[in-house]
Prior knowledge:
By secondary structure, the chain is mainly alpha-helical. It has 9 helices and no strands.
Amino acid sequence: MSASALNDIREEVLRISGANPKKCMSCGKCSASCPASFEMDILPHHFVKNIRDGNIENLLKSKTLWKCLSCFACVERCPRAVEPANLVEAVRLAVIRKKGENYLKVDDIPEFIELDNEIPQQLIVSAFRKYSK
């Protein structure tokens, strides 16, 4: 991907998220409070640092995008109000919006969850809205 395209994605991520990664002091409180950090390949404070430094390409392929629970524990713990979860969500949306790279497909659902009457239909509909076009 060209440098110009990556810069456009970075600007879009900053616009969508409303976060300011320049405020991050890399204290690691966001990563320490993240319940899913043990499954992430890029910890939340490193994720913010990559965006701040313009290293977007590796974030687009990161499994952290799909491991983030969007619980906002990182947002609550951040002493500088950087909002790492919003940045992760914005990068996730950038990946989802790229044509042909949907994360969730109809055939994949049985692999993730066992469908039964206990699962609200809204959960499935929300997942399709978020992870597909």
